[in-house]
Amino acid sequence: MNWTKTLRITSIFVVIFIAIILSFPLNEKIKLGLDLQGGSHIILECIDTPNAPVDNDAVNRVLEIIRNRIDQLGVSEPVIQRQGTRRILVQLPGVDDPEAAVEVIGKTALLEFKNEEGETQLTGAHLLNAKESFDQFGRPVVLIEFDKIGAKEFAEATKRNVGKILSITLDGKEISAPVVQEPIISGKAQITGKFTVESAKHLAILLRAGALPVQVEILENRSVGPALGRDSISKGIKAGIAGLILILVFMLVYYKGFGLIADFALVICMLLIVGALAGIKATLTLPGIAGMILTIGMAVDANILIFERIKEELRLEKTFRASIDAGFSKAFRTIFDANVTTLIAALALFYFGTGPIKGFAVTLTIGILASMFTAIVVTKIILELVANKFSYKTLV
Amino acid sequence: MDLIGEKKFDFVKNRKTAYFISSVIILIGLISIIFQGFNYGIDFAGGTLLQIRFDKPVSTTEVRNVLSEFNLSQSTIQNLSENEFVIRTEKIDSEQRKEILSAFKENLTDLDILRVETVGPVIGENLKKLAIYALIFAFIGIILYITIRFEFKFSIISILALLHDCLIVLGIFSLLHKEITISIVAAVLTIVGYSLNNTIVILDRLRENIKFKTRESFENLINISVNQSLSRTINTALTTILPILALYFFGGNILSDFALALFLGMVAGTYSSIFIASPLLLEWNKVFKIEEKRSKIATKKRGKK
Question: Complex ipTM, two decimals?
Answer without folding.
Answer: 0.77
